[in-house]
Amino acid sequence: MRDTTSRSTKEGIRRQVREALRQGAAQVDAATPAGRDRAVDALRAFAILGVVLGHWLVTALVSDGRSLHTASPLQHMPWLAPISWAFQTLAVFFLVGGHVATKSYASARARGTSYGRWLTARLSRLFRPVAAVLTLWTVIAAGLLLTGADQATVHALVKLALSPLWFLLVFAALTVATPLLTRLSPLWPLAVVLHVDLIRFGLGGPSWLGWVNLAAGWLVPYTLGAAWTRGELDRRRSGWILLTGGAVMTAVLVAWAGYPASMVGVPGASVSNLNPPTLAAVTFGLAQCGLALLLRDRLRVVMCRPLVWAAVALVNLSAMTIFLWHQTALMATTATGLLAGRLPGLHTVPDGLDWVAARLGWLPVFVLVLAVCWIAFRSYEQGGRRGGAARAVRGSRVVRAHRLSERETTVEVGHV
Questions:
Q1: Is residue 76 a contact partner of residue 359, using CB atoms and an 8 Å limit?
Q2: How remote is the C-alpha of 174 from its chain's centroid?
């Protein structure tokens, strides 16, 4: 009798939770302006989550009993390179970013908003969450060094924690230059990347020249986003050309030109496709952008489902918090796990399928720790709207944020 009552109570609680979620999602859906392109938000959310999941799958902190050092399963199992094809989604970041920035700048000009005011609004949300990350890791690094921690360990941890910042710096620079990029063809930065790689790899030029591609490489998808705003990529033919052309060019570069198959950096590799970007990374990004453009119509249909749309809206409201703290969540789990010894998939060398299976089991723990970071630091991203993300499921703050962003005909900078 007691078991029956307990099951009935639990079922009642589950029904109440499901009903609350449905009601909150319905509020978000009803309050979202009809003209909002939900596919943009969906692509942004998928890109954010793709990067996070990719890092969690290919980044390992190996313990030798005295220190921690970074490693990657791609280093020991190169045949896992397709993982990087699925989760290295930075090109979609810049595609959406270029589209949103150029659209918002055009809207700002139409309203008579000055460039300085527009830029301040764009960058403030982008960099507010950075202060919390820098402050916390400065304290952690100083504390570790003062207590005699191994310097190599501290360096590895700080490097992982702050590695997402390079993306923000590049994105901020392109945002600053948006007025100059609204009409720029993607072919120009693509030509720069091509010539840089020809000089580096074909003519034996200096390796430092590759850093020119840090701007030029990501300028390609960013200017594709501007072309999207101009209506030049509305036809499905454009998406197919980018997808097939980019995929073929990438295959040729990997198979016959000696470019790495992995689209992320691999420890110990002589060449990284990402650091700095190579021609292969850029052509692969073209294929990703083509696929993203082809998925727009389908995503618009899927985003009409209230629960799905509410989830995407919540991710977008916390995009920078998720992006900046996901590596910290991994490291916090790793450090805490050391109290129990060297745990498989967490502290062991990633050199076999047993490690992969164990790492998959750790993913829910990473998610839980990231949720704790989100609760602690989301207010830095949302400014004065404290508690906004926590109320997102109920709809109130999400609704206000989306109404505001639609009224500005843009998406807030924190949404990348």
A1: no
A2: 17
d(CA 6, CA 15): 14
Q: What is the pTM of this model?
A: 0.88
Q: Three-class SS of residue 183?
A: coil
**Which backbone phi and psi does 126 adopt, to 5 degrees?**
-70, -40
Summarize pLDDT for 346-359 with one digit per residue, the tens. Answer: 999 999 999 999 99
Q: How far apart are CA 43 and CA 212, in angstroms?
A: 27
Q: CA–CA separation, 224 vs 233, rounded Å?
A: 8
Residues 68, 61 contacting (CB under 8 angstroms): yes
Q: From CA 52, how far away is CA 57, in angstroms rounded?
A: 9
Which residue, 74, 91, 92, is CA-closest to 83? 74
Q: Which two tokens stand for residue 30?
A: 């009803």
Q: Is the peptide bond before 276 cis (omega within 30 degrees of 0)?
A: yes
State the Cα–Cα distance between residues 342 and 307, nearest whole angstrom: 40
Q: Kindly give the residue spans of alpha helices, DSSP state H, lying in 151-201.
A: 151-162, 165-176, 178-181, 187-197
In angstroms, how far is CA 394 from the centroid of its own chain?
A: 25
Going by C-alpha positions, the residue among 396, 350, 394, 410 that lies closest to residue 59 is 350
Distance from the first to the final alpha carbon of the chain: 54
Mean of pLDDT over the chain: 87
CA distance 403 to 394: 15
Interatomic CA distance for residues 326 and 322, integer angstroms: 6
**Each residue of 321-333: pLDDT tens digit?**
999 999 999 999 9
Neighbouring-strand partners of residue 61? 70
For 173, list phi and psi in degrees, rounded to 5: -65, -40
Secondary structure (DSSP) of 262-292: -SS--TT-S--SBTTB-HHHHHHHHHHHHHH
Residues 6+ apart with CB under 8 A from 304: 29, 38
At residue 407, φ and ψ (nearest 5 deg) are -65, -30
